[in-house]
Amino acid sequence: MPPRDANPPDRALTRRDLLAGAAGVAGAAAIASLPALGAAQQASVPAAPPPVVPADPTKVVGTPTAAVGTRSPFVRPTRVPTGDIQGFSLTPHGDLTGTITPADLHFERHHAGVPLIDPARHTLTVHGKVARPMVFSMDDLRRFPQVTRTYFLECSGNGRAAFRDPKPDLTPQRVAGLLSNTEWTGVPLHALLEEVGMTGDATWMLAEGGDACMLTRSIPVAKAMDDALLVWAQNGEPLRPENGFPLRLLLPGWEGNSNVKWLRRLELGTAPWMTRWETSKYTDPLLGQKARQFSFDMDAKSMITSPCVPQAITKGWRPVSGLAWTGRGRITRVEVSVDGGSSWHDAALHEPVLSKAVTRFSWMWHWQGKSALLLSRATDETGYVQPTRTELTTARGPGTDYHFNQIVGWQVDPSGQLTYHGGR
Amino acid sequence: MPPRDANPPDRALTRRDLLAGAAGVAGAAAIASLPALGAAQQASVPAAPPPVVPADPTKVVGTPTAAVGTRSPFVRPTRVPTGDIQGFSLTPHGDLTGTITPADLHFERHHAGVPLIDPARHTLTVHGKVARPMVFSMDDLRRFPQVTRTYFLECSGNGRAAFRDPKPDLTPQRVAGLLSNTEWTGVPLHALLEEVGMTGDATWMLAEGGDACMLTRSIPVAKAMDDALLVWAQNGEPLRPENGFPLRLLLPGWEGNSNVKWLRRLELGTAPWMTRWETSKYTDPLLGQKARQFSFDMDAKSMITSPCVPQAITKGWRPVSGLAWTGRGRITRVEVSVDGGSSWHDAALHEPVLSKAVTRFSWMWHWQGKSALLLSRATDETGYVQPTRTELTTARGPGTDYHFNQIVGWQVDPSGQLTYHGGR
Questions:
Q1: Which of A104, B116, B278, B383 meets the CB 3.0–4.6 Å disulfide criterion with B69?
Q2: Interface-testing mutation among B42, B97, B142, with chain A (most A C-beta atoms within 10 A)
Q3: 8 Å CB contact of A350 and B1
Q4: Is the pTM of this model over 0.90?
Q5: ipTM of the assembly?
């Protein structure tokens, strides 16, 4: 079974709970005693497990069909949530395989909580430097041509904590859990902008969210007219509330916060608005008292997700598998090292390798019981190669707080125990 | 918002519930009073909605981050379950977009309920015509090379009820809800068979499930050595219990029941075993007192999922969008007709078009308020064209009960109301 995260939420189900019927009943009682909690908080309490695990499942009739499925009580991956309204929750990459992030495990990052929005009353206003200002209902938007595309989404702060404090017990969830990968469906933004008729001098677009902080970002019109989408669905189903239900902006390959959730307004203009989200936050100090602003592109990055902390491995063959992604198109190469970067091996890239989506890679390793340092290194179609920690900090200086993408990995000791290694 | 199914489960949340805070509290109490139900049944009771929908969501702080997300109370797509241990539940295609089926909405079909299996105790035995009979634990299987692939899964009985009784209020869920599409991860079966060393005379393989009916099917070795997988994950997460947790056989493009769930045994042999699942069931009577046995391949098929029953449409532009799939490779063409098949229009196929996975198609339609009959017709890479109802019944006769794939669609009356049309 997949490894459990080293830092499970307090109320996660343990194996002991499962094997003791009484604990299951106690779990049900705990759910009943929490009527005042919101739906999102209740979700962190696992459903009560069936009280008896049969010795031979073929001798016991199973459970009936159901309107909505539930996970096996033996594997209930969960996000690590901060549990507050200005916080985040982290995708448990060490518990997952493949490339798609289940919608209820997609990372969260919001600054004023998740708003409750009635889609029948939600509208999108498009105005400013346009010939025909318009207000669109959700039904109006569904009349436009629709596309379905798989793209990753990554918070520009993904990896910050691991960079600042690379503790040995960090998991893939703690190191890079502000990354997720989703099949999105919606309307190409250029179709909407053609409908309202942008004026010739429109070069920037303001996107405003409908949450309590009304997060706003200035977006170059060139991106809006390129591959930007207005999406209402993720992985086939309507957007989840924490991902912008009923409507979010999707800017493939660009930092998460610019993909404005609960989207309610687009204003076309001739210069960026210099909102607090692009001045006091999300601007990166560099060397020489300079700064990067509007650093939207997410750089090529990779992470080995199996094996990983908190696993211990045994001798023999096993796949070294992980994820690679770049905001600048397709991943063209991932290399794996087991000797801390002295030598590298080309990993297999699993098809389909999609632009601005995560790519699963794997490489077969025969571990013979000696110390090893597992690293992965991604290259994208622009020729960009994922940097070392030294290369990254030399280029950007010590003041930057975002866009960490240095090579990291897992130290294996002779007993097979893994610990996090933050790169060199 | 997506259309609701015409036949929602009894306890589905209504809009009235949402707007009345008191109903939400009553819902929470109902969950607390059901400790004796299994987890799967509890899942059909929606979580209590937040009691108050704010008039302006930007004026109210939202809900905090959470370990696992929950759907918006405004859109909670559900399967239609038979609710028994020999039944099925249906994917709500009319409520979904894109191509991926959320794991908890993947269709179910089982014959003795969903077993509760401890993955730490589950094993796969491989024996019979092999040089080295072996028993594999789940951990053993994870040492083999792994692949991630997106494939549809379709019950061979998908569409039976709609074929027999084409009622006007049938939804996409009722017509073709025994189809789902998933990103699977596991080990190629050929790697396992090479490990045990099949003898030269092995031509068939028996696959046995670990549920209470121990469903068994005989599979040609040629398929096992081609693209068959042993999978433990769907859409990134561990398999759901109703989809075979912890291990299922995955035979891309082949009828659902042959993709044996809760897989515990593979036996290699020289002839099919003629189990009851391939003699009394899943064999198709044809004309002239003949029958098709081992009719594994699923034929090319398509279905328009938007617009659909129970929607009513209004005049103007809208996408006609749906799904197409074939067990014989890639979909190469989907045509849409709005005049009942007198004329056809090529629909756009959304990339990536993957082999033996569903393909999303769309075509922009300008409805002017007249009666229309919307149909879709798929063609696959073998040149096979989805047949009419007449062509299908002429070829197979009236006795067959499986593998219906005739052209079907939606009748639109001048008021815009849609009804199901079972084809001609």
A1: A104
A2: B97
A3: no
A4: no
A5: 0.88
